[in-house]
Amino acid sequence: MILINRNNSPASKAYLKIYWPLAFACILLIANTSCQSQSYPQQSSNLSLDRKAKSDLELFLEAGAEKTLKTSNTTASELINTAQKYLGTPHCMGGTTKKCMDCSGLLVTTFKTHGIYLPHGSEEQARYGKIIYELSQLQRGDLIFFIRSYNTNKFITHSGIYLGNDEFIHASSSQGVTISSVHNSWWNERFIFGTRIF
Q1: How many domains does the chain have?
Q2: With bands split at pLDDT 50, 70 and 90, how would you rate the model's confidence at 72?
Q3: Do residues 58 and 32 both lie within one domain?
Q4: Is residue 120 annotated as a catalytic residue, yes or no?
Q5: Catalytic site residue from 103, 114, 120, 183
Q6: 31 and 55 fall within a common domain
Q7: 146 close to 157: Cβ distance less than 8 angstroms
Q8: Residue 162 within any structural domain of the chain
Q9: Kind of pairing between the strands at 167-172 and 191-196
């Protein structure tokens, strides 16, 4: 803290002349840094969102996104091969085993097999990796996220792993772990973005 000597001595005036501009510059620097926000990719003009979805997306991004996930030497193909071992596993909320699992549980278990920590919950999983808004830009091994797949106050409600060729693997509430097309109208209209972790 800078203490200002209130007398009018030459020493006091010299002190203010030297240090006050420095203190002012520091204050401006701190204020500018605190006002800067994280820059995220612009939403695609092809992504049709209603007003609430756009607002929810903005709130989601403001809360933090594009975190780095340490994948070590794991490849997208290795991850996909592991996920496919769970095909046919029944669905259950909160499940992470061969007995039953939910969509985010499939990702948790698949990543854990390779020593990679991913949180349980689609909305938290969506905070990792570079955001990709265009379905056409997704690559094999990208994570894929959807909104409004069931009735909840959560924004992002479903997750899967993109396989390439317009398909993704996920745990469906009706079919268990299965492979679906991103062009299926039900999934296509609920797609929000993908994330690239490799």
Answers
A1: 2
A2: confident
A3: no
A4: no
A5: 103
A6: no
A7: yes
A8: yes
A9: unpaired
What integer best gives the mean pLDDT of the chain?
A: 86
Percent of the chain with pLDDT over 70: 76
Active-site residue, from 92, 120, 158, 183: 158
Verify whether residue 158 is a known catalytic residue: yes
Question: How many other β-carbons are positioned within 10 Å of the β-carbon of residue 72?
Answer: 7
Regarding whether 27 and 73 lie in a shared domain, the answer is no
- Considering the domain architecture, whether residues 90 and 17 belong to the same structural domain is answered as no
Q: Which amino acid is located at 111 in the chain? A: F
pLDDT tens-digit map of 128-143: 999 999 999 999 999 9
User: Whole-angstrom Cα distance, residue 118 to residue 128?
Assistant: 9
pLDDT at residue 12 above 80?
no
Q: Give a yes or no: residue 154 inside a domain.
A: yes
CA–CA gap between residue 50 and residue 167 (Å, rounded): 25
Please tell me the predicted confidence (pLDDT) of residue 49: 86
Residue 103's CATH number: 3.90.1720.10
Q: Comparing 22 with 146, which gets the higher pLDDT? A: 146
Task: Give the residue numbers spanning the domain of 174.
Answer: 51-196
Question: Catalytic residue at 170?
Answer: yes
